[in-house]
Amino acid sequence: DVDIYTRLFLPITQDLPPLDRYALFHWNHLVDYINLTFLWSLSSIVLFCYYLFNLKQINWNQPILILMGLNTMIFALFFFAVNPLMSMPYDWDYFSLPGIALVLFVSVLSREFEKVKGHLMPVTLVFVVSLFVIPRFIVNHNPEYLSERLERLGKHVFKTYWIRSAGDITAGIDLSSIPNNIVRLKKAVSELENYALKGNDVEYANLLWRTGQELRKGKKYDSALVYHELASQYDKNLAANYIGLMECNFMLENFQASADYARTLIQIQYPSLQKALLIGIQCALYSNDYTAAQEYSEAYLEKWSDDKITYIRNRLYQGEDLEQLKYQF
């Protein structure tokens, strides 16, 4: 198996799902790349097309034109094959580097065109085309517009390149100052469900986990538990999701279930072994599993000193008023 994160270039053939929607000659990659070329230099692209219509009026058989043309072609082909680990729409600045070669090439073409025609370039055409970049500045200046744009880009990436898409979607939603994160996250979850792969989709699992997290912030533990349980169906290795499962069950007084998830947190040492052991002790006490509480207390005190945990450990040894120990938290 090849880790896609170690690849310099995109694979020619499609990988196994969920990486099967992006390859060198896949339609999704072709559309992304063609769309990205308009960010190189729209004016240069229009001028180049204009000069192609006047093909016979330019002496193309010149070393400088051949050199600059080949240079632009090599840049374009190289970046066409490069693996965009942040996704092509998000790593647009890196993939716009061929635009430098294109601008230089068109500049040389303009000089040759001036020699033949007596004027530099169709200034009016360039000016009109330049106006098309104005919406870009408007969107980037307005946080709400930018939030919508980033969310839509993230959804597009999920449906195509897939990698990092959940983080892109949530980053876009977080950018908004309007308190409707839960509504937007639920819509995203619903829209992308048909593209998700059960059992092997960490991106969709992250999106479900984040939805559950937002619901937990609003104390809606019943609804949050649904999303956290769904997240585990798409990726059982998402460590942060076990925090959500533990907390929801604890707040809903499903103490045995919360203790089971706390044990998993200790095994994977998340968010740290120290914090996981504290969580485990509390959940074990609430589920009346005093053997586990004693085990976790001993493990904790082997590494850290804490008067409260020492007190709990001693009381567990003595076996007195164990029901009251949970109130130490």
How does this structure look, described?
- The chain has 329 residues and is mainly α.
- It is built from 16 helices and no strands.
- It has helices at 27-37, 42-53, 63-81, 98-117, 123-130, 134-141, 143-159, 165-174, 181-192, 202-217, 221-234, 239-251, 255-268, 273-286, 290-303, 307-318.
- The protein starts with 26 loop residues before the first helix and ends in an 11-residue tail after the last helix.
- The model has no long low-confidence stretch (mean pLDDT 91).
Helix proportion of residues, in percent? 55-70%
Report the radius of gyration as a whole number of Å.
Answer: 29 Å
Stretches with pLDDT under 50, minimum 5 residues: none
Sheet with the most strands, sense and barrel status: none
- Along the chain, the helix and strand elements come as HHHHHHHHHHHHHHHH
Overall geometry comes to elongated
Question: Which band does the percent of strand residues land in?
Answer: under 5%
Q: Report the end-to-end length measured between terminal Cα atoms.
A: 47 Å
**Number of DSSP-assigned strands:** 0
Number of helices, counting only DSSP H or I runs of 4 residues or more: 16
Average predicted local confidence, pLDDT: 91
Based on secondary structure, the structural category is mainly alpha
